[in-house]
Amino acid sequence: MGNKLYVGNLAYSVRDETLQEAFAPFGSVTSAKVMMDRETGRSKGFGFVEMATDDEAQAAINGMNGQALDGRAIVVNVARPREDRPGGGGGFGGGRSGGGGYGGGGGRSGGG
Fold first, then answer.
1. How many CB atoms lie within 10 A of CB 2?
2. How far is residue 109's CA from residue 69's CA, in Å, rounded to a whole number?
3. What is the C-alpha separation between 109 and 112, in angstroms, rounded?
């Protein structure tokens, strides 16, 4: 499974310490990190928590997924290694594929 957890939908007020305290009841938190925007210094709204064991990580998922933290229901699941994530990251627009923007096709057919 893995003992590193992705924590999403975080309120912008949540900091590393907040995550650490929230996950501590489920076991030993070896690290808790909220991802911050380099430019603005604001939270990106997600982070990662690492538990000491897989069992503690599973207990944290079961106990915290969907729970409110600073007023927002958070999403907790096993973090996937970067290279396993679909779409690949990197660069501007990281891995978002296909048509957005104006006139981007999108399978719509004319007709009347």
1. 13
2. 44
3. 10
Distance CA 19, CA 17 (A): 5
In 3D space, the residue among 39, 63, 68, 66 whose CA is nearest the CA of residue 51 turns out to be: 63
* DSSP H or E segment with residue 29: strand 29-36
Top CATH class of 4-80 equals alpha beta
Residue 81 is predicted with a pLDDT of 82
How many Å apart are CA 69 and CA 46, to the nearest integer?
12
Instruction: Tell me the per-residue pLDDT of 46-105, one tens digit each, with 9 for 90 and over.
Output: 999 999 999 999 999 999 999 999 999 999 999 988 775 555 455 444 444 455 555 544
pTM over 0.85: no
Rounded to whole angstroms, the Cα distance separating 12 from 10 reads 6
